Amino acid sequence: MTNNNRVTASDILKVVPITRKTLWLWQKKYQFFPDPIKKVHPGGRGIIGYYPAWVEERCKKIYSLQKKGHTISIIKEILQKEEEQKTEKRVLIIDNESEFCAPLIEYLKENDFAVEVALDGFEAGLKTREFIPSIIILNIVHSGINGIEVCKSLKSRQDTSAIKIIALSKDLRHTESEVLGSGADMFFIKPVDFGMILKTCNDFIAATEPK
């Protein structure tokens, strides 16, 4: 395994007795899991694809279900029901700084979060309704968006009041007390360590899980 957060096709094939063609079919044709994120090989030898670590367990499950005689359609139904039960790990990032968003998206996905991005206010409203995030990562100082008002609006509406908000800012235009007072659940000054964001997201998820 490459690290605790991601695996390669070779890693998966070491523990699941399938061929590369089968892995490709599961990924491309049946879309049981996403395409790998391609990066330069650590040794500088070409490009290598990395899957989120959970893909390994997904492949084990698919293989087990096939061994039990389940058809592809039945397996899809089983996996869909499982996904519906994992509705909490959805993060919407409202930020138009691509240099910040791109690596954060990849990092969260590698840690088993579903992630969407909104670049403006209209898109943020649309994706909040359709994607139904459990957590929003919001750049308070965002061109075209008043982050303080966004926090107040989300917390004042019954359908969005339960969404946890992680507010970010790279200047001191707004104080921490003001941001938290507007409804944000956590406030970080940019640049912020992604590990802190991940820990906060995981803490929010854990707090909502049944005891």
Task: Record the SSE blueprint.
Layout (H helix, E strand, L loop, with lengths): L5 E2 L1 H7 L4 H10 L7 E4 L6 E6 L1 H14 L4 H13 L5 E5 L3 H13 L3 E5 L2 H11 L3 E5 L1 E2 L2 E2 H10 L7 E6 L6 H6 L4 E4 L4 H15 L3
Parallel strand pairs: 4-5, 4-6, 6-9, 9-10
Antiparallel strand pairs: 1-3, 2-3, 7-8
In whole angstroms, the N-to-C terminal distance is 32 Å
Return the CATH class of the largest domain.
Alpha Beta
Largest sheet entry: 5 strands, parallel
Low-confidence runs of at least 5 consecutive residues? none
Strand residue percentage:
15-25%
Could you give a short description of this structure?
The chain has 211 residues and is α/β, with parallel strands linked by helices. 47% of the residues lie in helices and 19% in strands.
